[in-house]
Design a protein that fits this description.
The chain has 18 helices and 9 strands. By secondary structure, the protein is of the alpha/beta class. A 6-stranded parallel β-sheet has the order 3-2-1-7-8-9, with helices on both faces. The protein has a 3-stranded antiparallel β-sheet with strand order 5-4-6. Helix 8 (about 110-120) runs parallel beside helix 17. The two termini are about 40 Å apart.
Length: about 400
Amino acid sequence: METDNDRVLTKRFRRIGERKSAPGEKRKRRIIDPYVRAATTMLEANGKVMVFTGAGVSEESGIPTYRDPGGIWESFDKKKVGHITGFVSNPLMCWRFEFELHKLLRQCGPNNGHKALAALEQMGIVSGIVTQNVDSLHQEAGSINVHELHGNEMRGVCLKEECGKKFHATEVFKSLRWMDDDGHILEDNVPPCPGKTPKQPKKKKPNKNDSDSDSDSDSDSDSSSSDASSISSGVSSTCSSDSSSSAMIDYEKIFAQPSRKTAVKEAPKCPCGGILKPDAIYFGEPLDSSVRRACKQLSQESRVVVVVGSSCVVSPANKLPLIVKAAGGKIIEVNVKETIMSKHSYLHLRHKSGDALTDLLTTTATFLSTNAAAVVLLAIALISTHSDEEE
């Protein structure tokens, strides 16, 4: 609960950095250090602050983003290892992609941004985190109320509806004999990594003088496209954006098809016999209904949302911050570059997430200090530093 002292400090901070207009000059907008503004905005929310994170947060831990230059989708074919039709066509190849991610993630850990968010939650400032990331780094940093909107790549889940048991990814790799019992990689047992297929040069339009071999090639291509289309339609016809993916997609029916015999044989299995799938949401798959409801509820209850390291191009995830704003709340964006969410934001912190969130934590913690003099001195120092940089 906000005390009288808190109100005094908040008002005092709002006036720090104010620049008076010269006589006859048109009144200018107050200039206040953005971190002071962000801290006061979060404190005024009385613990109703939601954090919405994207790949930019984990990038500072050494994990590449998906869409930026040098990102994951430049090295891997998204349609083959990131789409549900790719999984039902070849589960083993998708697990091989997960193995590559696992080797990367085991070398990474939470960065200062993750740790700052965990601290803000422990202080009662942040009420919960909605993350699009699938790497568990928020939990490793100590955050408790974390909603994984797109699932978790560090787990596997049984696709049998009556089972649904979850396993750590290392257990899946051990079952495939890609790892020994101590977690060491058995390189000789690991199949080649599914890299991105090079773009093929455009074919010339066929004419009457084309050879029969060209016709055969076109026929094969049509057959392949038809197969992919049938998989896609079979999956999408059972999917609903408001339903749990495991409940709405009849995987057992899909994998019972004769054409899936090899895929079923190679796929990792649960002790119950069900096929194991990475516990992440694939493209073409609906979000988990319970997670989606929890994220929506948190958005509706929040007065401030801090959007960190997200390009906000993935729907329906990018609608959550707008729910907060529609209810009269404010969006604080932490990103080194402008995004489609920038125009909706009340405040922008144009720094890397690790630095920005650490500074935000420090400023907010100082606000909560009982030593008002120290608070004011810190604010003046922060404003002076930013003013010098602007000059």
